[in-house]
Amino acid sequence: MPSFQRVLLGLFCLLVAVLLLAPTLVVIPMSFNGNKSLAFPPVGFSWQWYDNFFNNPDWTTSFTNSLMIALIVAVVATVVGTLAAFGVSRAAARTGGLLRALLITPMVVPGVVLAIGIYAVYLDTHLVGTVTGFVLAHTMLAIPFVLIAVQASLEVFDRRLETAAGSLGAGRLTVFRTVTLPLILPGVLSGALFAFITSFDEIIVALFITSPYLKTLPVQIYSSITRDADPTVAAVGTLLFLATSLIIIAGLLFGMRRGRT
Amino acid sequence: MNAPHRSAGAAIEIRKASKRYGAFTALKDIDLHIRPGEFMTLLGPSGSGKTTTLNLIAGFTDISSGALEIGGKSVTGLPSHKRNIGVVFQHYALFPHMTVGKNVAYPLTLRGISGEDREKRVKRALDMVKMADFSHRYPNELSGGQQQRVALARALVFDPPLLLMDEPLGALDKKLREWLQLEIKRIHRELGTTFVYVTHDQEEALVLSDRIAVFNGGRIEQIGTGRELYDNPATLFVGRFIGESTVLRGAAEVSGNETVMTIGDQKVIAHGRLAGDARPVILLRPERVALKRPGTDAVTDENRLSGTVTEAIYLGSGSKYEVRLKDGTTAVVRSPLGAADFAIGDAVDVAFTPADLILLPDDASADVTLT
Predict the structure, then answer these.
(1) Burial B56-80 (b: 16+ CB within 10 A, else e)
(2) CB neighbour list of residue B341: distance below 8 Å, 6 or more residues apart
(3) Spatial contact of B193 and B156, defined as CB atoms under 8 Å apart
(4) Which of the residues A257, B145, B222, B287 has the least number of beta carbons within 10 Å of its own beta carbon?
(5) Cα-trace Rg, chain B
(6) E strand or H helix at A122, and its extent?
(7) Environment class of residue A61 by beta-carbon count within 10 Å: exposed (0-12), middle (13-18) or buried (19+)?
(8) DSSP A177
(9) In terms of CA atoms, which chain B residue is nearest residue A161?
(10) What is the mean pLDDT of residues B250-258?
(11) What integer is the mean pLDDT of A123-129?
């Protein structure tokens, strides 16, 4: 009975979707809790935790710190990662493979190990608690994501188009600007998005190199929840969930529009 | 006319040019002179060096040794984007993120041409290839033939003195290919640009070219008009590559000014003799030989080889036969309309005069390369 199988399949998909989403969705009712507790189900209703997030300087500063660092990381990692992807895909196969393996190590090495190493170096170089320190560490973590995304685009990019553009009178840089970049842009943009997210929600390294004067949002969430179980965390979670959903929906719509033409 | 301006075509002079990739030599000491405005085809099997030659002219690779001049100026070391040469590729190479109009405008924009002037020239180039109505389409909305016409417009819109085409019709079906061949020929006539065309299809070369350079194993075997190559091939390779042919091999003796070859138990007399001590072979063109009933219709000086018809094909414009000769060779014969008909299994004589045959030095590579 095919229709019965379809129903069964549908139910199973729904179950998977619920399992994936439930932990995230639980945060939403919690953020409107009337009491100062993270109990579920929540008691009462209030906007106070949202109010707290937007008006408490602990939260606002950590949020702007995270936003600023993540934006810088997105730019730097995208530029460096894109260049690296070019190097890897245009080098001889063996050299390229080695370079690639080297470049994605930050993804493979356990975060704590990296964090300890970074912390040790930062103590000596006085980079603990600095924006430069955060940007450097997060860029390193984000480069592999950009590399992989851009390399995937480059693999399907037809290099003969560059030859053609050259024959029509375009120098190397013009070829890159007018032909190569526009065609690998989806890869570059998704790389940038990954880089942004990598930095924005990074916690392990951040916990090591943070200082009372420079906290990122994940550090603030962590310390808030370990210190006083404050539902502001749930409010932040809800806001982030909304923001990511919007970005992903926009991305899907954009992709659909591109796919049609 | 809507065609772009007639431009003075550029001459190309290649002297003693070689191209090596590591230990592999793709081109060995080739000499090639192409006249301004000429339609020159580089013809040969794959790996013969024809595309390498085109890439050298285009500037996609550098010459290893020798000289290359375009329009009287050495272009050694000059990158392709500074050579001002139009190139059309087999795979079209249209930019998928630009409309047809943007694609054609691209080389103009690079040359600082904008506004109305650019629009006018794009329109003119698209009119020339009959694609003006497709200006707002994207390449992936076009058929292969349409894409190649757009690519042609893009390569010509900036009035280059030289257009290079690398098997541009290779990916298209036969009907479309034949039609586009005539279009390319017309455009060449209208523009006066020098065209250099690479193909492995000898028929295409004959249709299009003023002259043809036949490549084999990194060398040029012969340069000439289609007629010269067909009637007077310089080598066995050229003779076999251009047109259909039958090759006869046998023990040969030279007596006076004649070469006598024994094929099976029959003798074939050819006028002239080969210089040097190369082993001679005889090349027959299918329409220069006749099929006759054994022992009938004798003509003076005629050579006759007896055999059996193994294939008879009616072509409308005539008939084509394959005849198995006594020594095992298969001879190809084309009879005009009105000639006697033969059926499979008929015993026949393949008849030809010494003037109808071509005497050439044997060359084992001619057989190997063609398979």
Answers:
(1) bbbbbeebeebebbbbeeebeeeeb
(2) B312, B319
(3) yes
(4) A257
(5) 24
(6) helix A111-125
(7) middle
(8) I
(9) B93
(10) 87
(11) 93
Does the CB of A161 have a partner CB in chain B at under 8 Å? yes
Give every CB contact of residue B106 below 8 A, 6+ residues apart in sequence. Answer: A165, A168, A170, A178, B95, B98, B154
Contact A179 B138 (CB under 8 A): no
3 state SS of B55 = helix
Rounded to 10 degrees, what is the CA torsion of A130, A132, A137, A140? 170
Mutation pick from B95, B118, B148, B159 vs chain A, by most beta carbons of A within 10 Å, is B95
Cβ-Cβ contacts under 8 Å, B80 against chain A: 163, 166-167
The least confident of A245-249, B47-51, B153-157, B320-324 is: A245-249
Reading the block at residue B119, the tokens are 């629009």
Distances in Å between the alpha carbon of B143 and those of A127, A241, B149, B162, B346? 59, 45, 10, 26, 48
pLDDT confidence of A204, banded at 50, 70, 90?
A: very high
A183 to chain B, any CB pair closer than 8 A? The answer is: yes
Q: What's the distance, CA B167 to chain centroid?
A: 10
- Closest-CA distance of chain B to residue A116, Å: 46
**Per-residue exposure over B22-51, b if at least 16 CB sit within 10 Å of its own CB, e if not:** eeebbbeebebebebbbbbbbbbbeebbbb
Task: Give the pLDDT of residue B6.
Answer: 60
Residues in chain B within 8 Å Cβ distance of A169: 81-82, 84, 107, 110-111, 158
- pLDDT greater than 80 at residue A161: yes
CA distance A189 to B332: 63
pLDDT mean over B60-83:
92
Q: Report how far residue A212's alpha carbon sits from residue B166's, in angstroms, rounded to the nearest whole number.
A: 67
Mean pLDDT across the stretch B5-29? Answer: 88
From CA B151, how far away is CA B89, in angstroms rounded? 8
Q: What angle do CA B258, B261, B264 make, to 5 degrees?
A: 155
pLDDT of residue A38: 78
Size of interface A-B (CB pairs under 8 A): 59
**Closest partner CB to B95 (pick from A161, A167, A169):** A161
Give mean pLDDT, residues B320-330. Answer: 92
Which residues partner with B212 through β-bridges? B41, B224
Q: Do B110 and A179 touch (CB under 8 A)?
A: no
Residue B256 has what pLDDT? 83
Q: What is the ipTM of this complex?
A: 0.82
Distance (Å, whole) CA B296 – CA B291: 10
The residue-averaged pLDDT of A237-250 equals: 88
Other Cβ atoms less than 10 A from the Cβ of A12: the count is 10
CB contact under 8 A, A183 and B97: yes
